[in-house]
Design brief:
about 350 residues, alpha+beta, Cathepsin D, subunit A, domain 1, 3 domains, 10 helices, 21 strands, about 25% helix
Length: about 350
């Protein structure tokens, strides 16, 4: 990538190379390196919205050491489903917690109440974070010196810290006021869940039934490839969302189908800072091919208004309802494959 930057033919090439590197370091929990690349993005493109949105968090997170894998061990855990979230047990600095798995979170998060309970060091960040609803909330940044899930252990795990009095934590007990985001999940490399439990898998090639990669990383998010009526779709993979829904781009590209099969409604989205209601079309059924499997998505809402940057980039959000529908989800981040069966 350094060579790409050196030989970049223009600002767009240089911008793209720095963006890829910033996302790469962000996902690895190497925040000082991600900050340096983000500052280079802003030097080339001062109005870049993503870089502007990330810079305050990165300046705070970069004060902590890089995330590090201490033990790449396995785990087999029982999981629970409180409030329709996939929640697993873990320890942070030796203290128990039950946090939910969110493949749509490019940073892990906890409430200020839990950060205080765990005695974590906090850094102020003069900015706010935007949630899926489009609302925003102020945050601080904390460093967990040790995090353990089964026999898998990390050091120096950075968390966003938001108010326990606001969504998504205001209706959860203190021990459940946390989100396990992508820097932790990607470090685990291969995870799987079904009705019998949640696993961190030792062999990163196991159970990879898909013949080719069907996931990609884009702007710090995991994207699943899909098809609808022979057209390619991109789904944000988001186990933190209860429901699967479609973004305005799908409505724009398939307006005839949506109007012929849908009815007007509204969709309420909840995220950091609050909730928002947006107009939508409701589809009783939507047949798509995801992860080599043809599936009927039931009761899918198609948003008509944009709510965040993701609603411009992708066709839909693949939520936990679809992931749990068939009983087993296998996410292999080494092979960049998802299997749902």
């Amino acid at each position: 990538m350094t060579e790409v930057i050196k030989t970049a033919q223009g600002r767009q090439d240089e911008h793209e190379a720095h963006s890829i590197l910033a996302g790469f370091y962000l996902r690895k929990g190497e925040y000082a390196e991600s900050l340096a690349e983000t500052e280079r993005i802003l030097a080339v493109s001062p109005d870049d919205a993503d870089a502007q949105g990330n810079i305050a968090f990165l300046r705070a997170a970069a004060r902590f050491p890089d995330q590090r894998i201490v033990s790449a061990g396995t785990a087999h855990l029982s999981w629970t489903y409180p409030g329709k979230s996939l929640t697993i047990p873990l320890t942070i600095n030796g203290k128990r917690a039950n946090y939910f798995i969110d493949t749509g979170a490019n940073v892990s998060t906890m409430s200020d109440a839990d950060a205080q309970r765990l005695g974590l060091e906090l850094q102020e960040a003069s900015a706010s974070v935007n949630g899926a609803s489009g609302a925003s909330a102020p945050f601080r940044v904390a460093n967990a010196k040790q995090l353990r899930i089964g026999n898998f252990e990390l050091q120096n795990v950075v968390f966003l810290v938001s108010s326990a009095n606001q969504p998504p934590f205001n209706d959860k007990p203190v021990l459940e006021q946390g989100i396990i985001g992508l820097p932790i999940l990607l470090a685990a490399k291969h995870i799987r869940w079904n009705r019998s439990g949640f696993d961190i898998v030792a062999d990163t090639t196991a159970a990879a039934a898909s013949p080719a990669p069907n996931l990609l990383m884009d702007e710090g998010y995991v994207i699943a490839n899909a098809t609808f009526q022979h057209d390619s779709l991109s789904f944000l993979l988001d186990s933190g969302s209860i429901w699967t829904f479609m973004y305005p781009r799908f409505a724009q590209n398939h307006v005839s189908y949506v109007k012929a099969h849908g009815s007007m409604t509204s969709k309420q989205l909840q995220g950091f800072g609050g909730q928002i209601k947006v107009p939508a079309w409701h589809l009783p059924k939507l047949r798509v091919r995801i992860a080599e499997t043809v599936d009927d998505l039931n009761d899918v809402d198609v948003l008509l208004d944009h709510t965040d940057q993701n609603s411009y980039r992708y066709d839909g959000c693949l939520g936990l309802d679809t992931m749990l529908h068939r009983g087993m989800v296998d996410l292999n981040f080494e092979q960049m494959q998802i299997v749902i069966r």
